[in-house]
Amino acid sequence: MKKSILIGLALAFLFVGCAKDDDEVAEFNKPALYWYQQIGNSIASGNMDKADAYYISLKSEHMRSPLMQTAMMMLAVAHMDEEEYLLAGYYLDEYNKRFGGEKNREYIEYMKLKAAFLGIKDVYKDQKLIMDSINGAGTYLLRYPGSTYTPLVKTILVRLHMSQYLLNENIAALYERTGKPDAAKIYREKNKGSIVEMADITPPEKGVIGQVFD
Questions:
Q1: 201 contacts 165 by C-beta, under 8 angstroms
Q2: Half-sphere exposure of 50 (CA within 13 A, CB side)
Q3: Which Pfam families does the record cross-reference, listed alphabetically (predicted)?
Q4: DSSP code at position 70
Q5: How much is the pTM?
Q6: Biggest alpha carbon distance in the chain?
Q7: For residues 119 and 89, is the Cβ–Cβ distance under 8 A?
C-alpha cells in the first residue's frame, strides 16, 4: 500500500514537472473537452509527456468530468504501446479506484497483469515482480474462471513459471561452477514443484520472458 502511494506521488511530481516546462500545458481554466482533445492529440503525435501533463490539467480542473474515465484508459493503453508499463499501471490503478465495477473489473485486472508481465525486463532484478505476477495470475484465474482472457492469462502464467525455472537453474549452475554444491541443490529443489520442466522450455532469443502478444 505504501509503495503504491509513493509511486503515485512520484509520478504526480513528474507530471507537474513536465507541465512547467511546456508553455502550452501551462494554460489553465479550460473546458474539460479542451484538455481531453489535447490529450488525444498528444498521444496521436507520440508526445506522451505532454499527454500526461494535459491529464493533470484535466484532473485538476474537472475531476468529476465524464471524460476522465475515457482519458485514463486512453493513457493507460497508450503507455503500454510505448512500453512504459509503470505509467500504464498507474493509470489502470487510478481507473480501478474511480470507475472499477463488476462489469469492467475483469478487463482492468487483466490489463494490470499484462502491464506487470511486460514490465519484467531482467529476471535477476525483477524476481519479486515475477513472484507477484505469478500470484496475481493465479488469483485472476480463481476469481474469473470463465473469463475471455483466461487463455492469455494462462499463457502469461506458464511463461512466468518458465522464467522462474530458468532463473533457479542458472543460479544452481553458477553455484556448481563456484564449488558450492549445497547451494546449487537448494535452487534445484525449488524447481521440483514447478508446473514446467526443463524439457518444456526453449530459452527465447530476446530474454527469458519472451514475446506473448506479438
A1: yes
A2: 19
A3: YfiO
A4: H
A5: 0.74
A6: 68
A7: yes
The SS3 of residue 77 is helix
Cell numbers describing residue 203: 530459452
Enter the C-alpha cell of residue 6. Answer: 509513493
CB atoms under 10 Å from CB of 73, counted, come to: 18
- 160-199 burial, b at 16+ Cβ within 10 Å, e below that, comes to bbbbbbbbbbebbeebeeeeeeeebeebeebbeeeebeee
- State the DSSP string of 26-56: T--S--HHHHHHHHHHHHHTT-HHHHHHHHH
Going by C-alpha positions, the residue among 163, 174, 97 that lies closest to residue 131 is 163
Contact 202, 165 (CB under 8 A): no
- What are 77-122's pLDDT values in tens digits? 999 999 999 999 999 999 999 998 878 899 999 999 999 999 988 8
DSSP state of 198: G
